[in-house]
Amino acid sequence: MRERGAIYIASTLSNANRVRQIGDVFREAGVRITYDWTSHGKLTDEDALRRAATGEVDGVRKADALVFITPAKVGSGIEFGLAWATRIPIFALLEEGPEIKPFYYLPGVTTYEDFQDLVRDVLDFLDDKYDCSSH
After folding, report:
1. Closest Cα partner for 20 from 38, 33, 35?
2. Is the residue at 113 inside a domain?
3. How does pLDDT run across 46-76, given as a tens digit for each residue?
């Protein structure tokens, strides 16, 4: 299967299982995940934290789009801000209902309450970007 592009998935560590499930859906559709932070769990060692932070920042920078999933905390907020500041489109899944966060309403951010709608729009975005309509 031809790669459709790459995404970074941002959320909180307590939501790692849901992030893995969502990552699997995108991988099956030919999308590369730029960095899988769910694989290392909670870190406490300074060197491991530094490597993870670098991997996460690089993952956001290398992504064609950021998939942002609530609940979210400080780390995912930083990833959101980095993506927005570098004009990477953000597709935000508000699974716990709409949260009143002004940043979710910035230009370049699209919010969803339905997972299937988000997947469809991310895949359409990637297909348009790489002109590889295959779905």
Report:
1. 38
2. yes
3. 998 999 999 999 999 999 999 999 988 888 9
Helices 74-85 and 46-62 pack at an angle, to 10 degrees, of 40
Helix/strand/coil for 55: helix
Determine, yes or no, domain membership for 135.
no
CATH of residue 122: 3.40.50.450
Contact 7, 31 (CB under 8 A): yes
Q: Which residues of 35-74 are buried (b: 16+ CB within 10 A; e: fewer)?
A: bbbbeeeeeeeeeeeeebeebbeebbeebbbbbbbbebee
Residues of the chain with pLDDT under 70: 1, 97-100, 132-135
DSSP code for 4: -
Q: Output the CA torsion sign for 121, 123, 124, 129.
A: positive
- Please count the residues of the chain: 135
79 part of a folded domain: yes
Q: How many domains does the chain have?
A: 1
Q: What is the 3-state secondary structure (H, E, C) of 8-49?
A: EEECCHHHHHHHHHHHHHHHHCCEEECCCHHHCCCCCCHHHH
